Amino acid sequence: MYLVDYDLSVVPASKRVQFYRKFKELKISYKIFTGSRSTYSVFSTQNRALAEAVYRLALKFGAVCHLYDANRLLP
After folding, report:
1. Is the pTM of this model over 0.85?
2. pLDDT-derived band at 18, boundaries 50, 70, 90
């Protein structure tokens, strides 16, 4: 599993809106039509290419972000 965490708090509101529009388009392009909604800026997927694409998108919009290859998740 891959996790991408991103912090958009440093990004102006208009850029955050653009990010989430592009993020939605990206998920649709990978045929992901549902997903958990969270107040945390974390995205998880089994698809490495998608995780890398989300990471690059977050960087493009100026977010502080990290990409993790997670082999165990704890509650």
Report:
1. no
2. very high
Q: How many CA atoms lie within 13 A of 31 on its CB side?
A: 1
CATH number of residue 45's parent domain: 3.30.70
In whole angstroms, what is the distance from residue 3 CA to residue 67 CA?
Answer: 6
d(CA 64, CA 6): 6
pLDDT in tens, 53-68: 999 999 999 999 999 9
The runs of H, that is alpha helices, within 1-75 are 13-29, 48-60
Specify the amino acid at residue 2.
Y
In a domain, residue 74? The reply is no
What is the rounded CA–CA span in Å between residue 72 and residue 1? 8
pLDDT attached to residue 67: 95
